[in-house]
Amino acid sequence: MEAEFINLIEDGGVKKRIIQEGQGEIPIDGSRCKILYKGTLDDGTIFDSSLDKERPYKFRIGKDELIKGFDIALKSMKVGEKSELKITSNYGYGNEGNSYKNVPKNANLTYEIELINYKQAKKKKWEMTSEEKHQEAINKRTKGTAFFKQQNYKEAQKIYKKALSYCTLTTEEGNELKASLQLNLSICYYQLEQYKDSIDYAKKALDLKTNQQQKLKALYRKALANIKMAELEEALADLREAFKIDSTNSAVIEELSRVKKLLKEARMKEKEIYSKLFQQKLYDESEIEPKEIEIKEAKSEGSSCCDPNEKIEEENQLKQKDDKKEVQIQEETCEEREKPKIDNNENNSKIVEESATPV
């Protein structure tokens, strides 16, 4: 027994009779539907059909892509459902008809339509409630994790960032979801060798002050990135904090041991370098000092005996001194020679007087 037609709107302009039952949810405004259909006029003339197409027709509800009767009917159908529709001209092509499809004015239409599947329309972010955004963030996190497992870290990172933009809940649950996404971003950036970004997202997760397990993960992620950046002291501090939270965590214990070993090796190497520099400094000074002394001594010797001009000048000075002495001797000799020429009578008393003076 065939099902009866039911009114989909109050004025009876769109009626539906189910030929084949479908299942699942029904689409809403904005949903993208894949359908098969055939349209006929009252006299049975086919004016439109998708059955002769290679692919199902894609129809978006609420965008006036075909006729209003389609929008109304599809919002009542389930996936797999096949129905017969009776649509008046008011919900069809109206009093103008459609010359391209040979539909006359004010024509009533009959359709057979099947809903193959549909993609649920998504609300815009600004249209969502905080709870809806929270759920969308969870959905995107799941999608991002699928890419992460495929080692597609770049794509996973993009999706985790989008998910993070939907985190608006300030409840404990909301903060834990936000911290979870930040930790996921931290490890994505670590795998992409962008260690500074990895540290930044780990810090953001720590700032949320969520549960101890997430705090431990954040400290561990931060420590791993710090090791890669050779910030061993920072890494050691992070791992010690993580160890306080869980002293049985094998990953933390292993990294703690490794960082201590790396620090010890770095300090020994640093000590060795300073020691070599100190020895090199002493060696250089011992080589330079004798050379300076040697140069000074050479300079001093050169000034006294190596410069021929200075030697000639010195000889000239000695010669001048000898000449002066010779002149002086000659003058004294002359004076002596001139003394006997003095009148004995005039100086007799004076000579007597000088002979009596004590020497």
UniProtKB/TrEMBL annotation:
TPR repeats: 179-212
Source organism of the structure: Paramecium pentaurelia
Coiled coil regions, renumbered to chain: 213-249
Protein name: peptidylprolyl isomerase
Pfam families in UniProt: FKBP_C, TPR_12, TPR_8
Enzyme class: isomerase
Catalytic activity: [protein]-peptidylproline (omega=180) = [protein]-peptidylproline (omega=0)
PPIase FKBP-type domain segment(s): 30-119
